Amino acid sequence: MLERAAASKKIMLEETNQQFLKQAGIARFGEAEEIADLMAFIVSPAARADMLNALTNVRFWGQSGR
C-alpha cells in the first residue's frame, strides 16, 4: 500500500512512511510480535472484564452528572 502511494507521488518510500505515521498520529509501526500480543489481549477474558468495567464507569458517570 505505502509502496504504491510512494510511486504514485514520485517520492521515496521513507517519506511516505513518515507522512503516514504523522497522519495516523503514531510514532512508529508496530512489530509483528506487538500486534500479536495486542490481538491475544483483545480476545482474552481480561479484555472483556476491562471493557465491562469501562462501560459500567461510563454509565455511572453519565447518571451522576459528570
How would you describe this protein?
- The longest helix has 20 residues, at 45-64.
- The chain starts with a helix and ends with a helix.
- The chain folds into 2 domains: 1-29, no CATH class; 31-66.
- It has 4 helices and no strands.
- Helix 1 (2-9) packs across helix 2.
- The radius of gyration is 19 Å and the shape is elongated.
- The mean pLDDT is 86.
- It has 66 residues and is mainly alpha-helical.
Which characteristics define this entry?
4 helices; 2 domains; elongated; 66 residues
Q: How many structural domains does the protein architecture include?
A: 2
**SSE order:** HHHH
Q: What number is the mean pLDDT?
A: 86
Work out the helicity level.
over 70%
Number of strands: 0
Number of helical regions:
4
Q: Regions with pLDDT < 50 over 5+ consecutive residues?
A: none
Strand content is under 5%
| CA radius of gyration | 19 Å
* Sheet of most strands: none
Shape estimate: elongated
Distance between the termini: 43 Å
Alpha-beta content class: mainly alpha
